[in-house]
Amino acid sequence: MIIKSIKIPLTIILLFASFQICFGQEQTKVELFNEFGKITWEDLAARIDNLLYNLSQRPSSIAYVVIHNGKVLNDRERFRYEQWVKGQIKSREFDEKRIFVIRAEDKDELQIQLWIVPEGTEKPSFTEVKWNAVLSSNTKPFIFTTTEWNNGLATPAEYLSLNLFSEYLEANPKTRGHFVIKARSKEEFRKEQSEVINLLTKKYKITTERLRFFYVKENKSGWDYPQVEVWLVPQRLK
Q1: How far is CA 182 from the centre of its chain?
Q2: Do residues 156 and 107 both lie within one domain?
């Protein structure tokens, strides 16, 4: 039996080859996965979960979360969405090395972009900037956070948001951190004190001289203990 060769026009071969090349290129392009402005924490958490799921299906890809703040009432407000994003990633126990959270330049309105970047692809275009954490000279001592604030639906990026708290201490060298620890016993107080000191000194390189702790004995029914107030205390003006 003789099988005759089938002649395929060159134009069809080239068309098929170009289709394969284009298809391959589409799979390796950086992808703007999601883009949004001001939303609730619940909405943001759902979008981050969706991003993490898609990353789990693409083990060689990484992601960028690019945050452009809009007009903010004060500099402390600009860190809100960043902490929400980092907290959600932490709560899902996802590999943080695969996601880069970028502090980008401000825009007229809040804009957050979620990018997926396949292996070998250039990262998206953005201008990374340093967000201001320097307090004004007339700032009075204030509660930075509390245990209660960190026990809501949103998981903090770090215990008691100490990652961001340490940034403020670094940006304001003469500012101190005061911790009011409400506990049922001094033993419980010392255990909490030790945990905070270890985290701030070993992980964030804050010296113990800048930290002060105050014990308040308290035992209210229905409360989980200890309860902590984290204060940022600027230097007193003479």
Answers
A1: 28
A2: no
| 94 and 34, same domain (yes or no) | yes
Q: Over the chain (238 residues), what is each successive 10-residue block's mean pLDDT?
A: 42 42 57 96 96 96 96 84 95 95 95 96 94 92 90 82 96 97 95 97 97 94 88 83
CA 158 to chain centre: 9
* CA 33 from centre of chain: 18
Q: Is 194 exposed, middle or buried (0-12, 13-18, 19+ CB in 10 A)?
A: exposed
- pTM value > 0.85: no
185 and 168 Cβ atoms separated by less than 8 Å: no
Residues 183 and 224 sit within 8 Å (Cβ to Cβ): no
Q: Greatest CA separation found in the chain?
A: 106
State whether 150 and 221 are in the same domain.
Answer: yes
